[in-house]
Each structure stands twice: as structure tokens, then as C-alpha cells.
Amino acid sequence: MTVPAKIVAINGSERDGNTADVLRYAAAIAEKRGAVLEAIDLRTINMLRCGPCGNCNDRVIRCEQTDDVPGVVDKMIAADGIIFAAPVHGFGTASLMQTFIERAGVGYLRFDRPLSNKVAGVISVARRYSAGEVWAQLTVNALLNRMIIVGSGFPSEVHALHLGDAQQDEEGLTNVGRMVERMIDMIDLLNEHRRLTGRQELLAVGDRNERVGLPLNNLEEHL
Fold it and tell me: Residue limits of the NADPH-dependent FMN reductase-like domain (predicted)?
């Protein structure tokens, strides 16, 4: 029995607005393909900012902040694919997504890059300006985590201002739908290759230790 592809979408918006509408559209596309897309709205979780401890570059274990971030990270690790979706605020990435990237990346993901070889997609939502810059930042973050980026031709940038405007951006939604379709295709290809070869790690990850001053064996002793 084939297990349906599981995609986790991280919604970095502070509102149940256009970004959420775009992800609901993406979820409908996934459902038609027999895949499951779960949107995690960062506005609904308890997420602390990076604390004043200042020992992130010396720690060899997970962040000790007590909030909901590790639960979200664990869902990402269990998924086949991940979508990062955020609106443009102040010509940059909305603050909730920026905080999550910092907390998740520094506190949980850089020890052994557990998102390596997962399929990634990126969506930015903007009135008009800086959609490309936010899309590029989130894309680079996915590459940092050694994920497999699936393109949609044109980037999945949706233009909207007032609530409901995203549903009117036909070209933007077309690119989102194409991206989701290609993510599912890639997930299916990777899973089939794993089944045929018995190899779980299809692409070499290499040295997982990217942290200056901490030898790999020091990390392995604590993970």
C-alpha cells in the first residue's frame, strides 16, 4: 500500500489572511493528488525569541527554551516535503517567519541537518514590492538545510493587498499549483528510488558539522 506524500507548510503570517488562503489552495491541489498538506500557522503557537543565553555556538544539544518550536521541527522532520510561506512586511520577511527560521535553524536543525534531501517549496505573498527578496531568502534557507528545491517555472509569488485578493491572482496561484504538483512528483520519485535501491540517503550530505570550533566527534558524543 502506497503511503500518501506528507507536506508540512509553515505559515509565517500574523493573520488568517492571504497567505493562509494560498496555503488552502495548495492543500486542495495536494488533496487531488492523494497527498496530505498540513499548514502550521506560526501565529497560533507559543514561540519565544532567541534568548539571551548566548551559547548557541557552543551548544551540542537542542535549544533549552520551553515552547512549541521543537514540536513543529519534529513535524518537519517527519514530513516528505516542506513549504515555507510568508508575506512581505516592511520590505522583508514577516517577523514570525524570521523568528522561526532563527529558532529552528540555530537551536535544532544545524546539529545534523535532519531536513537534508527533503523536498522544499517556497511561497511569498506581497502587495507589490519585495516578493522576490523574501522568496530568495526563504529559498536560501531551504538550501542551507540541504533540501531539494522544486521550482515552478516562475517563482511562487502571489500578489495581494486586501483580504481575499490572493484568490484573484491567477498567475500567482498557477505557479503555486505547479510547484505543489512538482513537489509531489519529486517526493514520489524519491520514494520509489528508495524502494528499488534500499538507500534512504539518496544524495550525499557530507560533513554535517558546520560549526567552527566544534569537532564532529564532540557533536556525536552528545547527539
Answer: 6-154
